[in-house]
Amino acid sequence: MMHVRSLTLRALAALGVFTAAAVLAVASVAPADAQRRSQQNQGEDDPSQNRQMSSAIGEQVLRAREAIDADQFREAVNILNEVSRRDMTPYERSIVLRMRGAGHYQLDDNRRAIDDFLAAIATNALVRDEVITLRTQIGQLMLISDRINEGIQQLEMAMAAGAELTVPLARMMSQAYVQAERYQDGLRYAEFFYNNERNKSEGDYNLMQYYYNQLGRIQDELRVVREMLNAYPASRRSWQNLRALYARLDQEENSFETAKLMYLNGLLEEENEIVGMVAYYSHFNNPYRGAIILEREINSGRVQPTERHLTLLSNLWRQADEFERSIAPLEQLNRIRPSGETALKIAEARFQMRQWSQAEQILTQALDRGGLSNAETGRAWELLGSVRYNQDRIQPAIAAYREATRFPTSRRNADGWIRFINGQIQGAEMRAVQREQVLIDECRLTLEAERRSIVLTGAVDEDGRVRFTEIPSRCEPYFNLFGEQIREAGMSDEEAAELQRERAAQAAAASGQG
Question: With contact defined as beta carbons under 8 Å apart, do 343 and 366 qualify?
C-alpha cells in the first residue's frame, strides 16, 4: 500500500498543480469590477496623472496588436522591441512592456515575459488594480517556471494590494507552498480552498490530506480521508490511505476491517496487498478464513505459489487444525526446495491425522536428510518417539526419546515421556507380580487342602513326604509334585532355575551333614 508520505512533489504536480495553459487565467482574482473602477477613477488612481499615448507610439502599438491577433507573435515582439528604444512616457512604456511580455509568453519565453511585466510595474504608471492583475500573472508564470518562492511572493503582494482570495487562487497558493515545502505557511490557503470548494476533486482531497500528513495532524488527515471516501467510495487510493492511517494509529483491527472491505469490493489488486490481508486473519484468530482466501487466490493465479506463500498457507491450515489440508502446500513446498524443516511439518500433520507409519517414514527421512536446527532435530526425535509409542513399540520409542534429550528445547518433554513410559512398564510389571502372587497363594491353599487329604489316607513316601499324582496346570510353574514352591512371583525363568540350584545345593549339604 502506498503511504501518503511517499507522494513526491512531481506526483502532486500530476494532480493538476500547475499547467502552462492555466497561466493568466486567474486574472479574476482581482476585484470583479477592477477594470471598470480603473476607467471611472483614472484621475484618482493613476500615479502619473498622464495616461495619454502619442500617435507615433500608438500606431506602432496598433501594429503589434494586429500581429498578435494574427498569431504572429515574433513579429509583434520585434515591433515592440523597436518601439521600446524610443523616448516614451511611463504610461506608454507600461503598455509596450505589458504587450511585449504577452508576446514573449506566447513564444514560451517565460523569463522575458516576467521581466517585462515586472518592468511594467516599475514604471509606476499602473493603477492599483492593474498592478494586482499583473502581479497575479507574474506569480503564475514564476510558479510554472519553478521559481516557486518568487511566485509565492508575487501572489502574496497581489493579495496584500487588495486581490480577492478566491477558491482558485487559494488552491494555487496551497499547491505552491507544497512545492516550496512550506506547509505551515500554506495551510491557511489549503483550508480556505478545501472548506469553500463545493465540488472537490480527488486531487483536492489528496492535497488537503497531504498538508495534514506533513504537519503531523493525523486526526485531521483521517477526517479528510473519510470525507473523500464518502465522496469517492470507489477510490482505491483513499482506501489504501485509510489503511495506512489506521496502522499509524496502531488501530490494527480497523486496518484489517478496511482491507476486508477493499477485498470484497475488488479494490485489492496487488499480490502483496492480498497476502498482507490474509496474514491479518491469522493475527485475529481466524486462520481458516485466511487459508480459504489464500488458497483461492493461488489457484486463480493472482498470488504466485512461491515458497513464502505456500509456507503461509500451510501455517494457516495448521493453525486452523486443518492438518490434512496443510499437507498439499507442504508437499508442493518440499518439491520446490526439499528440506528437513518442511518434512518435519509434513510429519507433524501426518501425526495429527494419526497416520503413524507415514509419519515415522517422513521423520526418518527428515533426520537422515539433515539441515534441521538443533531445536527442530530435538522436536523430530521427540515426535518419532511419540509415533513409535502409539504403535506400541515401546523400546524403540524410548530410544527416540533418549535421542531427543540431547537437545535443550526437547529435553524436558522427552524426559517426561521416558519417565511416563517407564512408570507404565513398572506398573505393568508390578500388577503382573501381584496377579502372579495371588495365583501362587491360591495354588498353595489348593495343594495344602489336598495334602491333608493325602496324609489322612496314608499315601506318603518312605521319607514321609506327600507326593501328588498331579499338579494343577496353573500351579505347575510354581510348585513341584511334592507341593514345594519352586518359583517366587516376578521371577524370570533364569532366576527360578537359579533358585532351584541353590535349594538343591542346600539339600545336598544338609544330607551330608546328617
Answer: yes
- Residue 511 is predicted with a pLDDT of 66
- The terminus-to-terminus CA distance of the chain in angstroms comes to 107
Question: pLDDT tens digit string along 464-510?
Answer: 677 888 888 889 888 888 888 888 887 888 888 888 888 777 767 76
Residue located via cell numbers 509409542: 389
Residues 367 and 381 sit within 8 Å (Cβ to Cβ): yes
Q: Greater confidence, 23 or 300?
A: 300
DSSP state of 18: -
> In angstroms, what CA-CA distances link 59 with 66, 89, 125?
11, 15, 20
Report residue 138 as a C-alpha cell.
Answer: 507574474
* 241/93 Cα distance (integer angstroms): 54
CA 204 to chain centre: 29
Residue 147 corresponds to which amino acid? Answer: R
- pLDDT tens digits, 38-90: 444 444 455 546 678 899 999 999 999 999 999 999 999 999 999 999 999 99
Q: How many CB atoms lie within 10 A of CB 310?
A: 24
Residue 99: name the closest of 77, 125, 72 by CA.
77
Model confidence pLDDT, tens digit, residues 304-313? 999 999 999 9
Cα–Cα–Cα angle for 217, 221, 227, rounded to 5 degrees: 150
Cα–Cα distance list, 492 to 425, 433, 477, 495, 498 (Å): 16, 11, 11, 5, 10
Smallest CA-to-CA distance from 381 within 349, 357, 410 is with 410
Global pTM value: 0.59
**How far, in whole angstroms, is CA 31 from its chain's centroid?**
53
Residue 332 buriedness (CB in 10 A; 0-12 / 13-18 / 19+): middle
**Residues ≥6 apart with Cβ < 8 Å to 285:** none
Query: For the stretch 16-54, what's the b/e string if a residue is b when 16 or more beta carbons lie within 10 angstroms of its beta carbon?
Result: ebbeeeebeebeebbbeebeebbeeeeeebbeeeebebe
Separation between Cα atoms, residue 346 and residue 340, nearest integer Å: 10
